[in-house]
Amino acid sequence: MIKIGHKEIGRHTKPFIIAEMSGNHNQSLERALLLVDLASEAGVDALKIQTYTPDTITLDVHTGEFFISNDENLWKGQSLYNLYKEAYTPWEWHEAIFNRAKEHGLLAFSSPFDETAVDFLETLDVPAYKIASFENVSIPLIRKVAKTGKPIIISTGMATAAELDEAVRAARSEGNEQIVLLKCTSTYPATPTNSNIATIPHMSVLFGTEVGLSDHTMGVGVSVAAVTLGATVIEKHFTTSRAEGGVDSAFSLEPHELKMLVEETERAWQSIGQVNYGPTEVEVPSLEHRRSLYIAHDMKAGDIITKDNVRDVRPGLGLSTKYYDLVLGKAIKKDVTKGTPLSWELLL
Q1: Average of per-residue pLDDT across 300-307
Q2: Which residues have CB under 8 Å from 59's CB, separation 6+?
Q3: Which of 153, 199, 229, 248 is most buried, by the most CB atoms less than 10 A from its CB?
Q4: Which NCBIfam families match (predicted)?
């Protein structure tokens, strides 16, 4: 069993929902704190931010491969350095954001992007760590996080099975078994067709970990489907309003959608249940509304049962309809009125 703070993670409990703020604070602490409030109102379990600076994640270079020129990239026209400068969460804000989360009873933690970020987050006593997809091949970072002894959530975007094996082994080599893998597609936004959530149960068996979904698709449908396949953690980016813009706003949920995510993933989890045939306890009263055999016209003792005077109708208090052909041609033992359920005791 994995436990983050006071929350347990596993199939025995509802999905653990993480609201990812990322850079949607738009460099406003006031907006960041508002996002914490909105996440709490939506009913999520945890709030997550990201801990880096432009200089800890890339170089101050604005040409060549450091410049985003791909026409299909959401951030085309920016250098990596300027993008991360716009998106990063100032480290001096972290304590205020985490304290606001605590006031709401929300768990709050972060994705560190280098070892200095881990050292900083340890001073804030975060309850867990998240490794982003682009860092899942950073074995020294994974080992550093694993050494804290705290749960480690690893997004699996782009990683091969071999690379994931290396990441999981790195965490376990430090004595940390509290590992959650998140199936992830590292496109922004992602589409349902390239989400491949069928990987979730396979990943759980292959690596022996809890598995969830870091979902970059629009809407909540993929997350709901993932829960039915065994996802125990769902992570989604969120914002106040996509219309207000922001580095991740295009694929982020708005507050009412985040609330829907919480509600619908819990419903999906509740619906899984167990393999079951036959009426459940709550269905038993409905059995009387099945079809069964009833007298359709008044009959006298000795009358012969025909297709005209016996029918299969609702409710279900008469003989089963499977005996219909068997009772045709039989005689009635006593006078009966229309609406009498047919029984073996009425037959000669």
Answers
A1: 97
A2: 66, 81
A3: 153
A4: PseI (TIGR03586)
